[in-house]
């Protein structure tokens, strides 16, 4: 804390070379340059708070309806910026630009095996959610952060890259493929080394308020990805933290890593919320928190 009671943080924000330099995705930045820039301590305005809540395991449709209500509340200032964490029962979702042919089995067969199917209004193609996968749903007013869709998606990627790094895993972007990837094993017709996907992203933005978000495979049963062509990319394989590390990863540790990555990347202070506060925001009982009405 500074002498006037305000919290201190470094400029640029720690652990986020992309944000510090505004380089394009995929460009490399010398670690010495980043370290040098981070050596100067400056007192900055207080970090903006973002409330965070773990919903546990929740049906996909229920989570989507909850987000719609929270987005409406955020637009009128009846709810703050939020980051929701959850897991879903087995479900396959199709983005608004997705192709049905990327579902490899019939919807009837999915239902017979306890897997739901949901078309959605998020970006991206087709993906799987299920137990052992941590899903993050930010409900943020980008009017108060940065009104830039591409930047926002790159920041979500960076959040998961930072989270993977906290487990000692080097994750990265692949040009032209939204999401987070790691080095894979030999495969394909030419026997080339194929990247494997650790985290997926699909977002929706309405009047600069966000919904949907990111999904990180922690202890996911990766066989369910065989039901689809992940993200519409032929030959794409999914992986998980546990597969990469060869050991169990707890849900709590995964959420802690993702929370830290999100906080550092966006420069937001995460403050835990509870079910009572959530109910108040949904009921419109909370006092406005500074979001403009527009």
Question: Which helices and strands, and how do they pair?
Answer:
Elements: E1 9-10, H1 17-21, H2 31-37, E2 41-42, E3 48-57, H3 60-75, E4 82-87, E5 91-94, H4 107-112, E6 116-119, E7 126-129, E8 133-139, H5 149-166, E9 172-174, E10 177-182, E11 186-187, E12 192-193, E13 196-206, E14 209-217, E15 237-238, H6 241-245, H7 251-266, E16 268-272, H8 275-282
Parallel strand pairs: 3-4, 3-16, 5-6, 13-15
Antiparallel strand pairs: 1-2, 4-8, 5-7, 8-14, 9-10, 10-13, 11-12, 13-14
Describe the 3D structure.
- By secondary structure, the chain is an alpha/beta fold.
- The chain folds into two domains: 1-46, no CATH class; 47-282, BirA Bifunctional Protein, domain 2.
- The chain is built from eight helices and 16 strands.
- It has helices at 17-21, 31-37, 60-75, 107-112, 149-166, 241-245, 251-266, 275-282; strands at residues 9-10, 41-42, 48-57, 82-87, 91-94, 116-119, 126-129, 133-139, 172-174, 177-182, 186-187, 192-193, 196-206, 209-217, 237-238, 268-272.
- Strands 3, 4, 8, 9, 10, 13, 14, 15 and 16 form a nine-stranded mixed sheet that branches. Strands 6-5-7 form a three-stranded mixed sheet.
- A hairpin with a 2-residue loop joins strand 13 and strand 14.
- It is globular.
- Mean pLDDT is 82; it is low at 1-44, 186-192 and 290-294.
């Amino acid at each position: 804390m500074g002498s006037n009671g305000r919290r201190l943080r470094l400029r640029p924000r720690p652990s986020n070379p992309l944000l510090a330099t505004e380089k394009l995705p995929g460009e490399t930045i010398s670690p010495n340059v980043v370290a040098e820039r981070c050596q100067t301590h400056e007192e900055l305005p207080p970090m903006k708070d973002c409330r965070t809540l773990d919903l546990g395991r929740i049906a996909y449709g229920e989570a989507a309806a909850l987000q719609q209500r929270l987005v409406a509340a955020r637009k009128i200032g009846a709810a703050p910026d939020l980051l929701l964490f959850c897991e879903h029962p087995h479900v396959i979702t199709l983005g608004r630009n997705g192709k049905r042919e990327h579902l490899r089995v019939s919807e009837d067969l999915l239902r017979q095996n306890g897997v739901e199917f949901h078309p959605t209004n998020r970006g991206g193609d087709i993906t799987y959610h299920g137990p052992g996968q941590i899903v993050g749903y930010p409900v943020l007013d980008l009017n108060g952060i940065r009104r830039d869709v591409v930047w926002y998606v790159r920041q979500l990627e960076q959040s998961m890259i930072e989270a993977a790094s906290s487990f000692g895993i080097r994750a990265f972007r692949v040009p032209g493929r939204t999401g987070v990837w790691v080095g894979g094993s030999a495969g394909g017709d030419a026997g080339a080394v194929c990247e494997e996907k650790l985290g997926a992203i699909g977002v929706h933005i309405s009047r600069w308020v966000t919904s949907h978000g990111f999904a990180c495979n922690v202890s996911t049963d990766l066989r369910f990805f065989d039901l689809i062509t992940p993200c519409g990319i032929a030959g794409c394989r999914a992986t998980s933290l546990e597969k990469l590390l060869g050991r169990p990863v707890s849900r709590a540790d995964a959420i802690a890593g993702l929370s830290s990555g999100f906080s550092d990347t966006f420069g937001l202070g995460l403050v835990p919320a509870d079910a009572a506060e959530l109910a108040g925001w949904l009921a419109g009982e909370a006092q406005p928190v500074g979001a403009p009405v527009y």
